Amino acid sequence: MERSLRLVQLTLRITALLQIVGGAVIWSGHGAALVNAHAGVGLLFVLALWGLAALGTRARVGPGLVIRAAAWGIIVLWLGMVQTRMWPGPPHVYVRVLHLIVGLAAIGLGEALGARIRRRLADAAQLAATY
Ligand code: HEM
User: Which of 36, 38, 77, 109 is the pocket-test mutation for ligand 1 (most atoms within 8 Å of CB)?
Assistant: First the structure.
């Protein structure tokens, strides 16, 4: 479990960084060629978030955060896939801001869930060492 958690957390962090940097380049107007790669890395990011949700379920961290992370992954993916067609023209900037906020919130949820799983594993290890 520890190894899988490390791998999934690393994937989440690397893909999150790529999404923020790639997104900034796309936003600056110089990254049209990056859009497909950004969407592909975005899919990997969401798979890592779902992987954390699965590990959270296995580690029994409680359903609240696990369900929120899993559901947020669906929202990130859905918005990423439809956003280019949403509110064309000047109001499109709101869609871009929303996409960024939803993505950053997903990163926060992934970090919170990863930390919760780590605490849970540490507690279980301490309990096992005591008895
Ligand atoms: C951590 C997750 C993500 C972050 C932080 C992020 C961030 C960004 C940012 C800052 C932009 C530039 C502004 C904009 O056009 O909205 C962008 C563009 C874009 N993103 Fe993401 N993104 C994430 C995930 C995804 C996912 C999962 C998909 C697709 C499934 C996706 C698809 C797109 C597309 C298609 C664009 C270009 C939109 C346009 O040309 O108007 N993104 N992203």
Answer: 38
What pTM value is reported for the model?
Answer: 0.93
80 C-alpha to ligand 1 centroid (Å):
6
Residue nearest to atom 17 of ligand 1 (CA): 23
Residue range(s) defining the domain that contains residue 35: 2-130
CA of 96 to the centre of ligand 1 (A): 8
The residue written with tokens 């990997």 in the block is: 44
Q: Which two tokens stand for residue 8?
A: 């999934």
The mean predicted confidence, pLDDT, of the chain is: 95
Based on the structure, what is the number of domains in the chain?
1
pLDDT in tens, 49-75: 999 999 999 999 989 999 999 999 999
Give Cα 19 distance to the centre of its chain: 10
Which residues form the pocket of ligand 1, taking CB atoms under 6 Å from any ligand atom? 16, 19-20, 23-24, 26-27, 35, 38-39, 42-43, 45-46, 76-77, 80-81, 83-84, 96, 99-100, 103-104, 106-107
Q: Please list, in sequence order, all residues whose beta carbon lies within 8 angstroms of the beta carbon of residue 57, skipping any fewer than 6 positions away.
A: 66
